[in-house]
Design brief:
By secondary structure, the protein is α/β, with parallel strands linked by helices. 33% of the residues lie in helices and 15% in strands.
């Protein structure tokens, strides 16, 4: 599987960072964070997971374990690896399955998502987490919604979020990640929660939760928590400078 990677600061001598997006997201959401990492002297590699962003679509492999193996297959040097939302779950498995690839972990409002602990059964979970239909929606309309919902986001973050979807010549939106593949990933999150891998992680972990809920991090041996009680789920888009500073504490 060939994956698209946005390379920031190629050739810099600092410890590298690998940045992993969430479900139905894309690498551009990390652009703000990557800019601050580069300014601090570190190269950053933001990856589009299979069937996301500019990476090609795939017929199979839409699950957390395969995504982790895809990251290991990039052949990058050992890095400080940060994942947001489902991407946090992915990088937890990367650290457990391929420890030689990971120097430290940054978990940005993810990496502890256990859907079976949040919903009474799979049917309820699937109904609640099935993505909405975007038929008939335009990029202009989505842009207005995002600006209204996130008035503190910079324009690049709004445009990066729109890039989660494909924009047609008539400004219409369509899914990069089709709903069936999206739901296969959700099912893998249900079947394969990250907590079962915590005991295998031997690197420092920084957990960065948004909101006031306390994440379940039992089993992690070396973990610090940096909460954002008033933050958005997309903390890397909302507070790129602050998130970059948090991640640099792992370097």
């Amino acid at each position: 599987m060939r994956l698209h990677v946005r390379v920031h600061g190629d050739g810099l001598a600092g410890v590298p960072f690998l940045l992993v997006h969430g479900l139905s997201s894309n690498a551009r959401l990390w652009d703000g964070v990557a800019g601050h990492l580069v300014a601090a002297g570190h190269p950053a590699y933001a990856v589009d997971l299979r069937s996301h962003g500019e990476s090609p679509g795939a017929a199979d492999g839409h699950d957390t374990a395969t995504a982790a193996d895809d990251l290991a297959g990039l052949g990058l040097p050992p890095a400080i690896v940060a994942g947001q939302s489902w991407g946090g779950n992915v990088v937890v498995q990367l650290a457990a399955r391929h420890p030689e690839r990971v120097r430290a972990l940054g978990l940005v409002d993810g990496g502890w998502i256990d859907l079976a602990a949040q919903f009474p059964d799979w049917e309820t979970c699937a109904a609640m987490l099935r993505p909405p239909d975007v038929t008939g929606m335009s990029a202009a309309r989505l842009r207005e919604r995002l600006r209204s919902a996130h008035p503190d986001w910079e324009p690049w973050a709004v445009e990066a979020t729109i890039f989660n979807l494909a924009v047609g010549p008539d400004d219409s939106l369509s899914r990069r990640l089709p709903i069936p593949q999206h739901m296969r990933i959700v099912r893998s999150m249900w079947d394969d929660p990250p907590q079962r891998y915590f005991g295998q992680i031997d690197v420092p972990v920084l957990a960065i939760p948004a909101g006031t809920r306390t994440p379940n991090l039992a089993g992690l041996r070396d973990v610090k928590i940096r909460p954002y009680p008033d933050g958005d789920h997309d903390l890397h888009a909302q507070h790129p400078a602050s998130i970059a500073a948090d991640l640099l504490s792992l370097a």
